[in-house]
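Hey, I was hoping to borrow your eyes for a little while. I've dropped the whole record in just underneath, so have a look:

——
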Amino acid sequence: MSEQDNPKPQNLKTSERLVWLGFMLFFVVVLAIYIARGDGLEQDLAEANRDLLQAQMQLQQYTRHEIPRPVELGLTNAHLQDLQRRGMVRPNERLADDLMQQTGLIPHEAPEGDAYAFRRDGIHVLNNQWVLANFEGDSAHGQLLLAYEVVHGNVHWEVLESTLDRI
């Protein structure tokens, strides 16, 4: 072997060192960029969280006097269609009409010479299962919570709870 075929061992070591040093320098620069971006993102996230908290506090201040929306009562379109399939035309009216004739459902004894009757404007269909009904007589008034079921157009009533207030 001649000296030309075999490079100097010292030059080879220096070039290897330069390549490794270049890789290490590249790696350190890339690592520094990622760390700097991570710190910036953490600061951005902390600032966004502060802004969100401030916005939530302002919203709470604006809405603290807001009146909550009441729960919607009554029959939904799906309930109306179901009751119509069961043979009931105009369910709200039909339920009220049927209940007006069912004074025997009122579980309280009226005083002698008095009779309890449902108030038409006091019958409230709560949903597809329950009705709240007001009744009154000369000396008392009260409320009934009734469950109902419609079978072949006929209404079957069940008293769940009642109250009576003497006048």
About this structure: Helices lie at 9-63, 77-85, 91-100. The chain has three helices and four strands. Residues 60 and 66 are 10 Å apart (CA to CA).
